[in-house]
């Protein structure tokens, strides 16, 4: 089963390529303790699918100057990358490598709110960069998810019509961004058990229903 001509596949990164949100939770917990803050479950839920500047302001308040917001976000991500180093292969979402290889001839893009250094770290250490013709991170657009900007920019880079794009997402804010971009969405249930407003939810890429669903999709002319 293949992919209809004209369709494009767009992927979030955290929770879609790598099941990294548990490690992000650990990193935020450790980082926040350095400022005397115990990270609650409510705070952790605020983190999913958000860009770092939004997370830092949510955790520490809107009073911080922009430079301090950037530095705290960057420091947390340095900690996260140290914790992740050497563990990427075991953190890949099951089946993702074989899935990308199966659809390697299709136009594919990565579109993530993640920090550029995190995107490069994951793509280079995993060896998955070669599958993506376009890579868009959260700092290449003015408005991160749940705004549609990252997905619209990725589609533009691929030369794809938004209605012909199929997005793989694990967060509610990411699903909202894809929907606002006018795209179809497959939910990957690594972060949430039941994503809302998706066309299909799967637990991971070994799930055969995703291949069948993709084969059934038609191109919008």
- What is the CATH third-level topology name of the largest domain? Rossmann fold
* Share of residues in helices: 40-55%
CATH class of the largest domain: Alpha Beta
Q: Based on DSSP secondary structure assignment, what is the total number of beta strands? A: 6
Largest sheet, spatial ordering of strands: 3-2-1-4-5-6
β content, as a range? 5-15%
Residue ranges: pLDDT <50 for 5 or more in a row? none
Would you kindly provide a written description of the structure presented here, covering whatever features stand out?
The protein is globular and about 55 Å long. With 221 residues, it is of the alpha/beta class. It is built from ten helices and six strands. It folds into two domains: 8-19 and 90-216, Rossmann fold; 21-84, DNA polymerase, domain 1 (Orthogonal Bundle).
Descriptive keywords:
single chain, 221 residues, Rossmann fold, DNA polymerase, domain 1, six-stranded parallel beta sheet, 10 helices, 11% strand
Secondary-structure map with pairings?
Blueprint (H helix, E strand, L loop, with lengths): L7 E4 L9 H13 L7 H7 L4 H9 L5 H19 L3 H4 L4 H7 L5 E4 L4 H11 L7 E3 L12 H10 L6 E5 L2 H9 L3 E5 L11 E3 L6 H8 L5
Parallel strand pairs: 1-2, 1-4, 2-3, 4-5, 5-6
In short:
The protein has ten helices and six strands. With 221 residues, it is of the alpha/beta class.
């Amino acid at each position: 089963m293949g992919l209809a001509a004209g369709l494009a596949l767009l992927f979030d990164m955290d929770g879609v390529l790598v099941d990294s949100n548990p490690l992000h939770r650990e990193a935020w917990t450790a980082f926040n303790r350095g400022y005397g803050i115990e990270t609650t479950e409510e705070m952790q839920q605020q983190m999913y699918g958000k860009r770092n500047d939004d997370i830092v302001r949510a955790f520490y308040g809107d009073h911080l100057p922009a430079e301090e917001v950037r530095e705290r976000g960057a420091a947390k991500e340095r900690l996260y990358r140290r914790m992740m180093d050497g563990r990427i292969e075991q953190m890949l979402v099951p089946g993702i490598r074989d899935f990308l290889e199966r659809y390697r001839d299709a136009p594919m893009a990565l579109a993530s709110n993640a920090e550029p250094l995190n995107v490069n770290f994951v793509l280079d250490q995993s060896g998955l960069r070669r599958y993506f013709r376009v890579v868009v991170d959260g700092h290449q657009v003015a408005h991160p998810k749940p705004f549609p900007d990252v997905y619209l920019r990725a589609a533009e880079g691929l030369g794809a019509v938004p209605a012909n794009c199929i997005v793989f997402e694990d967060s509610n804010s990411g699903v909202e961004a894809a929907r606002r971009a006018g795209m179809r969405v497959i939910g990957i249930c690594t972060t949430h058990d039941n994503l809302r407003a998706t066309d299909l939810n799967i637990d991971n890429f070994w799930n055969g229903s995703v291949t069948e669903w993709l084969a059934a999709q038609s191109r919008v002319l």
